[in-house]
């Protein structure tokens, strides 16, 4: 059954490109479920009750080294949650997922996320945006990036030094484990080698794929995305 009135939106971009911020804007604008894949996976792999699980131990080690999680593990988790959202007749926006060709398109035994989205929303309602920023800019942003430990709101570098707590909810401001400079180099390499190849296949498959300049202020990028969405 297709959610004919709802959208499925994917926001891609290198670490620090602002994809989470844009996904949140779109979720608020269109009443979409914001599926922050990275945050969703971190909640699972850092769950105190799961730390003796060998699969969780493996995935946590990958995360802390900057390497993408095992595609089979991610696809299983993301697909299950996505199907639940579709059954609720709810639109969805992802920040950074699917992150590998396997997660996007699957294989003979596994349905990829794109097939699930097309079946659930219809291909005309699936939109993909790539926030393009230079690697140097990504490194610069991540070196200054902080988030709220409670609501996960990003704290812009220009405001970080002036705030002792989140301006939105009052939560403690923290740095993410995978945002240190050395791990960032690995994350950028992973993005280039494992995520970017998805783009060519999406274009070849005639998906609505848009490359957006990710360097302007967030509100300007949001306006550009809205124009593409019509």
Task: Supply the key terms.
single chain; 230 residues; alpha/beta; Rossmann fold; five-stranded parallel β-sheet; three-stranded antiparallel β-sheet; 49% helix; globular
What can you tell me about this protein's structure?
With 230 residues, the chain is of the alpha/beta class. It has one domain (8-134, 193-229): Rossmann fold (3-Layer(aba) Sandwich). The protein is 49% helix and 14% strand. The protein contains eleven helices and eight strands. The protein has helices at 19-30, 37-45, 54-65, 71-87, 101-105, 113-121, 135-144, 157-160, 181-195, 197-204, 218-229; strands at residues 8-13, 33-35, 92-95, 126-132, 146-148, 154-155, 173-174, 208-213. The strands form two sheets. The chain has a five-stranded parallel beta sheet with strand order 2-3-1-4-8, sandwiched between helices. Strands 6-5-7 form a three-stranded antiparallel beta sheet. A hairpin with a 5-residue loop joins β5 and β6. α4 (71-87) packs parallel to α6 and α7 (135-144) packs across α9 (181-195). The chain is globular and about 45 Å long. The two termini are 24 Å apart.
Helix-residue proportion: 40-55%
Q: Give the count of helical stretches.
A: 11
Indicate the CATH class. Answer: Alpha Beta
The counted number of beta strands is 8
CATH architecture call: 3-Layer(aba) Sandwich
* C-alpha geometry: globular
How would you state the average pLDDT, rounded?
88
Rg from C-alpha positions? 17 Å
The largest sheet, given as strand count, sense and whether it forms a barrel, is: 5 strands, parallel
């Amino acid at each position: 059954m297709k959610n004919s009135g709802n959208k499925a939106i994917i926001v891609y971009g290198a670490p620090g490109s602002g994809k989470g911020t844009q996904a949140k804007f779109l979720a608020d604008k269109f009443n979409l479920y914001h599926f922050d894949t990275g945050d969703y996976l971190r909640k699972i792999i850092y769950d105190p009750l799961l730390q003796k699980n060998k699969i969780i131990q493996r995935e946590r080690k990958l995360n802390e080294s900057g390497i993408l999680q095992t595609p089979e593990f991610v696809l299983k988790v993301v697909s299950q949650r996505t199907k639940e959202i579709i059954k609720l007749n709810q639109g969805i926006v992802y920040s950074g997922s699917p992150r590998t060709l396997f997660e996007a398109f699957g294989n003979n035994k596994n349905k990829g996320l794109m097939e699930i989205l097309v079946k659930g929303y219809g291909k005309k309602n699936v939109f993909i945006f790539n926030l393009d920023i230079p690697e140097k800019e990504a490194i610069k942003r991540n070196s200054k990036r902080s988030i709220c430990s409670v609501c996960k709101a990003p704290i812009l570098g220009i405001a970080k030094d002036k705030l002792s707590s989140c301006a939105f909810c009052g939560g403690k401001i923290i740095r993410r484990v995978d945002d240190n400079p050395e791990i960032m180099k690995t994350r950028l390499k992973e993005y280039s080698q494992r995520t970017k190849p998805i783009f060519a296949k999406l274009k070849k498959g005639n998906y609505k794929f848009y490359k957006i300049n990710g360097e302007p202020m967030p509100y300007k990028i949001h306006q550009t995305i809205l124009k593409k969405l019509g």
